[in-house]
């Protein structure tokens, strides 16, 4: 885009789309957008940037006519704005195409891919480069992350340094490009955190997912590097035919970046890393969970191999402040801690609950789940979902989000999950919506409880409603807390 343009984003409140909007504004373009409904944290980000968001979708949102429309990958034929774009032959493109052409092509492309851990790992990597750039300005990172990195207070940044860091999403690109977005990013080096079946709405089976990741690995040049988790056989399959060096990280004795002595104490996760069998570093991270230590090790390994000094890596991990909606403490009211986590898959739920067990070992742990992602709304992982939720002391499930959009034969039936949990001796309930959940949970929560709210959406405002109900209870409106 050789000159300033008016660029309109359909579906602007998606995490990546909102970040792209900020990047485009940073380049001087006039940016507008629209969405069905806006919710934090991206609605807050766009408001802070002064980027107008029209709700809901409407053909009128295209007046005056933009120079270019970017169509989000959640937008499909039948959307009134998309139909207007096609009818009027307004120029349109996808997020991934714009990212490659406008931001990545002239930088060192560092891509973080995998079924789990992408957002946190990309945020860690960005902070490592940011800390290193204080002494070496050429390392100042540009980035796009699928969440708000708390060290930056944003999900994007445009700098003059060499690297561009991007979360490599395996989801499809747009209604006119059904390939994964990450195929547009052409990594010079990459991280592969995990590979398992996900996005059941677009991938036929696990083999289709593995094919996508194999193709990404195949884009890395011979001079590049792939830093790959050592604890998943599917990852091994995906990197087996790489033309560049593959460096494994994790707990395996033969891995190049081997983690040892992992422990959680005094609110910190601490561990050591051996590099090619030799003592290399000792790290501290203010986040609970083995999965977060693995994410941090992957980021450290990629950065070190790209020439980032070790002292900057150590400092960055010790000062990392997490990502919004990743084990985020939203409120502590009357001793009850409310956690927000972007749960999208049974494995992610399991690791979140394991991390909370580590961080709050004495707490009664609640899991409040809204099946909202395209994977969780389907019945493909019913058994795994039950196993993950068994890690909580109490489970409350909401109805499946927009269940009518999922074919009956594929749809998750949460009552079956609740029945399976109850049969295994775990207290569990199915409630219709956020209001019913708040009405049930608030009177029963006790000081010392941890309530993990698990959803990848707005969950009808439960993140505000539950703390408010607890505050009213504390003030005497609802009476004293009691065990249910």
UniProtKB/TrEMBL annotation:
Any GO BP annotation: cell wall organization
GO molecular function (one): acid-amino acid ligase activity
Keywords, sorted A to Z: ATP-binding, Cell cycle, Cell division, Cell shape, Cell wall biogenesis/degradation, Ligase, Nucleotide-binding, Peptidoglycan synthesis
Family annotation (InterPro entries): Mpl, Mur-like_cat_sf, Mur_ligase_C, Mur_ligase_C_dom_sf, Mur_ligase_cen, Mur_ligase_N, MurCDEF_pg_biosynth
Domain of life: Bacteria
Limits of the Mur ligase C-terminal domain: 325-457
Start and end residues of each Mur ligase central domain: 112-303
Pfam family, one: Mur_ligase
Domain Mur ligase N-terminal catalytic residue range list: 6-101
Protein name stated in the entry: UDP-N-acetylmuramate:L-alanyl-gamma-D-glutamyl-meso-diaminopimelate ligase
Organism name: Paracidobacterium acidisoli
Lineage: Bacteria, Pseudomonadati, Acidobacteriota, Terriglobia, Terriglobales
């Amino acid at each position: 885009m050789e000159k300033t343009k008016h660029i309109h984003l359909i579906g602007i409140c998606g995490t990546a789309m909102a970040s792209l909007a900020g990047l485009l504004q940073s380049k001087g373009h006039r940016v507008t957008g629209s969405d069905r409904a806006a919710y934090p944290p991206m609605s807050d980000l766009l408001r802070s940037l002064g980027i107008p968001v029209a709700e809901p979708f409407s053909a009128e949102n295209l007046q005056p006519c933009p120079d270019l429309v970017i169509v989000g990958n959640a937008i499909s034929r039948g959307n009134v704005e998309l139909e207007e774009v096609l009818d009027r032959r307004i120029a349109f493109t996808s997020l991934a195409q714009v990212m490659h052409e406008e931001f990545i092509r002239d930088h060192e492309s560092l891509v973080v891919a995998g079924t789990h851990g992408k957002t946190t790992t990309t945020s860690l990597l960005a902070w490592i480069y940011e800390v290193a750039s204080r002494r070496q300005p050429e390392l100042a990172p540009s980035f796009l992350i699928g969440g708000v990195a708390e060290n930056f207070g944003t999900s994007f940044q445009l700098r003059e340094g060499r690297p561009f860091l991007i979360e490599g999403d395996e989801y499809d690109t747009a209604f006119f490009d059904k390939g994964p977005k990450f195929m547009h990013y052409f990594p010079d080096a990459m991280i592969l955190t995990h590979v398992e079946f996900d996005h059941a709405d677009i991938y036929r089976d696990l083999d289709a997912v593995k094919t996508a990741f194999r193709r990404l690995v195949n884009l890395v040049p011979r001079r590049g590097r792939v830093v790959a988790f050592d604890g998943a056989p599917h990852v091994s399959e995906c990197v087996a035919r790489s033309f560049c060096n593959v460096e494994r990280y994790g707990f395996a004795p033969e891995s190049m970046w081997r983690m040892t002595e992992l422990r959680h104490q005094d609110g910190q996760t601490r561990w050591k890393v051996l590099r090619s069998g030799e003592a290399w570093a000792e790290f501290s991270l203010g986040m609970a969970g083995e999965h977060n230590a693995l994410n941090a090790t992957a980021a450290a390994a990629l950065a070190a191999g790209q020439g980032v000094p070790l002292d900057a890596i150590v400092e960055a991990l010790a000062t990392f402040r997490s990502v919004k909606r990743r084990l985020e403490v939203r409120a502590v009211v009357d001793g009850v801690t409310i956690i927000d986590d972007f749960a999208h898959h049974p494995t992610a739920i399991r690791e979140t609950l394991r991390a909370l067990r580590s961080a709050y070992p004495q707490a009664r742990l609640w899991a409040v789940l809204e099946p909202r992602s395209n994977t969780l709304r389907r019945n493909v992982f019913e058994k795994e979902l039950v196993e993950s939720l068994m890690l909580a002391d109490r489970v409350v499930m909401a109805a499946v989000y927009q269940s009518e959009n999922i074919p009956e034969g594929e749809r998750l039936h949460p009552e079956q999950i609740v029945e399976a949990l109850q049969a295994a001796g775990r207290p569990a309930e199915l409630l219709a919506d956020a209001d019913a959940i708040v009405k049930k949970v608030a009177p029963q929560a006790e000081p010392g409880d941890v309530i993990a709210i698990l959803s990848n959406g707005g969950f009808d405002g439960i993140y505000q409603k539950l703390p408010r109900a607890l505050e009213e209870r504390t003030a005497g409106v609802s009476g004293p807390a009691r065990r249910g």
